[in-house]
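# nightly structure sweep
# worker-07 picked up a monomer target from the shared queue
# config: single-sequence mode, recycle default, output format = structure tokens
# input follows
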Amino acid sequence: MYKVPLITLFMFSCMIPSYTQVDNHDDYWYMGASGGISFGDVTSASLIYSTTNKNGFQVGGLVGYRFSPEFSMQLEAMMEKRSFRTERYISGFRLIDTSNIVCWECYYAYDVVFTSDYLTFPLVLNYTKTKGNFGLTAHGGLFFSLLLVSNYQGYEEIYLDPVGADSFIAYDFEPGIFKLIFTGPTKDLINTYDAGLLIGLSGKYMLNKSIDLTIESRMQLGFVTLYENPQMPELNNKSLVLRTGIIYKINRVR
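# output follows
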């Protein structure tokens, strides 16, 4: 009379610990730290300004959840430094576009380096394949960056030659060199945020059941123009990030 229920109960009790062990092995929370160098690539739609890229860095922490042997998702908080240089040089001035008088000795020069600090929040989906103690991960996601501070260093200069610009004097232009120095924090110039997509590859080495060492290559593609001032050239930032890190698996079954 009780044979069938007892057999069923016995089978069910045997399945519970087996299922729990596999589930805990495959999904777990993890946290970590990562940092490295960032190779900036500022792209410009302007033909009159020249832009030079400069290197920066990323450093910060992350927390994530692995919900299957292949897939995991993580949220990062990164301190990020970006820098670039903008130049412009014009030789020869006309008073107006239709004027026949040209001051060939006159010139205009602009040379400024911008350095900005951001707090960046990447949201990343990872796909991982492992073999032994090694793993290879392809990842993609979104990022949102908040500008913390932006500084500039450089100058803007105009030179009106006393002889070549003689005809300009009647229009209240004075000959000589006029130079404006830029230094310190910018104001109402650099956009207060950035956002875009990211893609990349990373490798890991499982030091033990709790700790992984990682190395990563990532491309960030920003969609927001760098300058807040519409009179400035339209620039967008993209960067290649190379970084290393360490991951700690919080509740991984040993």
